[in-house]
Design goal:
Blueprint lengths: L12 H13 L2 E4 L10 E4 L1
Parallel strand pairs: 1-2
Length: 46
């Protein structure tokens, strides 16, 4: 449900699930994706 409520910056459903999970659990997302940092989630570029 949280992934479905995210703004439509990113259309990939799997990435949206990762973002929602990271936000819920206070985790950091390790990614090269340019859209994920536009969400309110901690990102560590790789």
């Amino acid at each position: 449900m949280r992934a479905g409520r995210l703004p439509a910056h990113h259309r990939d459903p799997f990435d949206r699930i990762l973002i929602a999970q990271a936000r819920t659990e206070g985790m950091t997302v390790l990614t090269r994706d340019k859209w994920i940092p536009s969400y309110d989630v901690q990102v560590m570029p790789v």
